[in-house]
Amino acid sequence: MSERTTSALAGLGYGTLLLLWALLSFGFGHGTPLPLGLVGSPFSLFFRLGFLVAPLWWAGIGYAIGRRSGRTALVLIALHALGAAMCLVRGTLWESFDRQWTQLGQVAVVLAPFLWPGFAVYLAGLVVACRVAFRQMEARA
Asked: How many CB atoms lie within 10 A of CB 27?
């Protein structure tokens, strides 16, 4: 299997894991939709079901890393991070800014063993993808 395919499959797996975490955090409407907005960024800013794109988005980032295109990967990561920041600052399509933080506070106690490790995995994946992409850019320079 080529490095491109392996990296794309790793990204697909990571995006699928994030999607499952976000759906479970949503808890059939009784949890928090914030992870749905984060993992689906930037698509979740415009479409209620934008979070479903997460596995394909991360597969694209993985593919870019696999073909040693750090610049492309960083652009995709930056678009994602910008969208995620917008969700944190403005709220999601499901809830306003104030409501999303109130809701997160209410369910955080119940979902704590699941919610916070999910955020950690999400951030760790972003950091790893950024580091690999930056190293690829340095190698080309």
From this structure: 14
